[in-house]
Amino acid sequence: MTYFAGSDGERLDIFLAGVSGLSRSAVKSALEKQGAEVNGVLRKKSGFELKAGDRVEFSPPDPEPLDVTPADIPLTVVYEDDNFAVIDKPQGMVVHQAGSYRKNDTLVNALMSRMGGSLSGINGVIRPGIVHRLDKDTSGLIVVAKNDEAHRSLAAQIKEKTARRIYIGLVDGNIKQDSGTVDAPIARSRRDRKKMAVAEGGRRAVTHYTVLKRYGAYTLVRFELETGRTHQIRVHAAYIHHPIVGDPLYGGSTRLYSGGQLLHAAELHLDDPATGERRVFTSDLPPYFAEVLRTITPCLY
User: Fold this and answer.
1) Residue in 135, 137, 172, 247 annotated catalytic
2) Which residue has the higher pLDDT, 122 or 49?
3) Which residues form the signal peptide (predicted)?
4) Of 177, 185, 286, 298, which one has the fewest beta carbons inside 10 Å?
């Protein structure tokens, strides 16, 4: 397939991941094996920097056959058609197996049971259908692609920032500003490899926030992602000294709630891959989150 770079300095692997719908690790593996032609020259280095207008020829590898074990796990399906589905993921559910996590209780296992082979194969065996992810203890809306064409469309919308992902979170402390933007690069923490951190040289990360309600020692906040880095909202909330309640990994308190971060993917705006129609999906706060809010008293200012 032929693609054209839109800006100077973008890494080849990042560019191809965005336009092909593949994960960066899958692109890196494909580049090492077969490479990609940039203006007719074969390139195999993931970090090769493109220039605006560069012509990139890249053939996505054939998807690996799916062999994830189906598991009969209940799912809340907000919407489903032949091209994609929107799932309301519960807190505590892992999206897909990764690293040392090999249990068959993930969202992917549940999807395989419900949808069988009707999932895109772009991300191979471990992540069939998965276009974007939610952390284990973040609840809410996640979109799943049911074929490769829909996957590429949805992935491109996220990359090009036409899809909107809006979260509700409860943070420690009183955020003084009514709204703001955190524009701070994120990379893997050098001190703790399980964590991400704001770090010079990291990938650009932008989070917009708006205060919804103040509770004195806590603030209910609406977050909107402009980029989608690992743990982005959690890292940025901690960076402005207002970590997410229930998130001890990033300094959040657990006095109110200790079952995981109080962060919920509440809205998902995207274009239908088949029709182009703008679709908006919403999810109410889960009962445990709503119950926490009922136990604290809103401020009058």
Assistant:
1) 135
2) 49
3) none
4) 177
Instruction: Find all residues with CB under 8 Å of 240, minimum gap 6, and list them.
Output: 175, 180, 182
Place of tokens 């079952």: 259
If one compares 297 and 38, the residue with the highest pLDDT of the two is 38
Rounded CA separation 82/53 (Å): 35
Q: How far apart are CA 251 and CA 256, in angstroms?
A: 14
The pTM score is 0.78
Q: Where are the alpha helices (DSSP H) in 141-242?
A: 148-159, 232-239
- For 102, the token pair is 């090999």
Calculate the alpha carbon distances from 192 to 189, 228, 246, 250, 293 in Å: 5, 21, 19, 11, 32
- Listed residue (219, 254, 255, 216) closest to 237, CA to CA: 219
Determine phi and psi for 42, rounding to 5 degrees. Answer: -70, 130
Q: Are 107 and 98 in contact (CB under 8 A)?
A: no
Under a CB-based contact definition with an 8 Å cutoff, are residues 299 and 214 in contact? yes
Amino acid, res. 270: L
Q: Are 2 and 56 in contact (CB under 8 A)?
A: yes
Residue 62, pLDDT above cutoff 80: no
CA distance 67 to 65: 6
pLDDT at residue 112 in the model: 86
